[in-house]
Backbone:
């Protein structure tokens, strides 16, 4: 089975550096899939779920998911480098935490004295989306029994 | 009698100090390795971002971005001085502050600009030297969190792009190796694009850009600025712990040596005392005969 190297790094840690057979990456304008030997690409990341599929040969098999938000992705020479500003592995998400985060984000409003209300609103809705995504992932991973 | 008791007291005091400094040394060692691990963990991200910026800068011939533009030369400057909250770390704060004060002396007008400082030691020392910091950030601990640093960097980027500040400098300790740290002044903004390493001809791949190359560079530069600042913070923390480790090791060694010397003096004094007492007894007995 053909594979490619996939690295996931954040400013504070290296989360993944492994051979994978497929990666589903959330770019700024939507998800895109990466298969081995993809043409060189440089793209900006958005908010979403990153899924990598491991080949069965390594004995690990299966998939792993991360919630990532912002950053860049580079594919060159059969190496996919994902530079995420934040990345949380799905297995570290819990429903209670995600619910609390979502409730906190929903309860927050744009302060009236905000210097830039448009950006503040954008940031707030992004926080809400992120929390909702975390909750959804936590629920699915629980349903799968992980 | 009085003399020996006094020496004994000092030996005890030196021993207590030694115990404290040795503990501090061990704590600093543990903190140093944790901080170093964090700093190393962040390096791949930083390297990759800088690589990307260099690659982008070389692929598009004309690079222009607000963060690269030289600001108004007479504009206000902003200087961020990174020091520690706690002392007992040898020359760490002193050398950073000396560099900062030298910078203020040499760069005309930098004392009139905004001066931001991190760490109690720096704030106090600058005030003592007649430089009043505009802002004293206190929420940065010795475990820098990217989110906090990112917010600070965003603030600087906003100040810079709105033209309120024409230059942002950081004065901090650069960590070169466990045995070498150097205070330095780094220009954060306008951002200096890293030099493109000599690319081997033919290896240059034609990237597919999403969004367009220009927009991507526009997003990459702020990320590069943020990660530069984050690295400065990480370096400062690692250097602080190394400096404390070295200072406390020296203190422990000195306390050990002092304890040894004092014990020798004590033994000599005790012997002298015994001799005097014996002489007194013998001469007393001789007088009775």
Residues:
């Amino acid at each position: 089975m053909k594979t490619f190297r996939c690295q996931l790094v954040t400013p504070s840690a290296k989360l993944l550096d492994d051979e994978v057979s497929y990666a589903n990456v959330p770019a700024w304008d939507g998800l895109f899939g990466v298969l081995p030997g993809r043409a060189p690409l440089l793209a900006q990341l958005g908010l979403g779920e990153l899924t990598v599929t491991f080949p069965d040969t390594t004995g690990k098999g299966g998939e792993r998911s991360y919630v990532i938000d912002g950053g860049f992705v580079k594919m060159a020479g059969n190496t996919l480098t994902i530079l995420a500003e934040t990345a949380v592995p799905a297995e570290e998400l819990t429903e209670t935490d995600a619910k609390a985060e979502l409730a906190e984000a929903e309860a927050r409003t744009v302060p009236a004295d905000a210097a830039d209300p448009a950006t503040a609103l954008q940031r707030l809705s992004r926080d809400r989306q992120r929390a909702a995504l975390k909750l959804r992932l936590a629920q699915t991973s629980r349903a799968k029994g992980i | 009698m009085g003399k020996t008791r006094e020496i004994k007291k000092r030996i005890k005091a030196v021993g207590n100090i030694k115990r404290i400094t040795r503990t501090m040394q061990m704590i600093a060692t543990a903190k140093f390795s944790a901080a170093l691990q964090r700093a190393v963990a962040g390096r791949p991200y930083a390297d990759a971002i800088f690589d990307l910026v260099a690659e982008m800068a070389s692929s598009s011939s004309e690079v222009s971005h607000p963060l690269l533009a030289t600001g108004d030369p007479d504009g206000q400057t902003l200087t961020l001085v990174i020091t520690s909250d706690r002392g007992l770390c040898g020359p760490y704060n002193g050398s950073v502050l000396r560099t900062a004060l030298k910078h203020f002396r040499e760069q005309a007008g930098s004392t009139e600009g905004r001066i931001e400082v991190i760490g109690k030691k720096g704030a106090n020392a600058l005030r003592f030297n007649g430089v009043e910091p505009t802002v004293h950030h206190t929420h940065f601990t010795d475990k820098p969190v990217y989110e906090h640093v990112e917010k600070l960097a965003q603030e600087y980027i906003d100040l810079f792009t709105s033209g309120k500040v024409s230059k942002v400098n950081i004065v901090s300790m650069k960590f070169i190796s466990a045995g070498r740290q150097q205070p330095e002044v780094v220009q954060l903004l306008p951002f200096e694009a890293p030099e493109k390493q000599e690319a081997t001809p033919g290896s240059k791949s034609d990237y597919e850009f999403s969004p367009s190359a220009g927009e991507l560079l526009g997003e990459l530069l702020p990320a590069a600025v943020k990660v530069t600042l984050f690295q400065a913070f990480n370096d400062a923390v690692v250097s602080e712990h190394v400096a404390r480790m070295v200072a406390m090791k020296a203190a422990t060694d000195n306390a050990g040596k002092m304890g040894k010397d004092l014990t020798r003096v004590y033994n000599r004094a005790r012997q002298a005392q015994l001799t005097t007492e014996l002489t007194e007894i013998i001469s007393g007995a001789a007088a009775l005969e």
Remarks:
- DSSP finds two helices and eight strands in chain A.
- Residues 6 and 30 of chain A are 19 Å apart (CA to CA).
- Residues 117-143 of chain A form the longest helix (27 residues).
- The first strand of chain A starts at residue 4 and ends at 10.
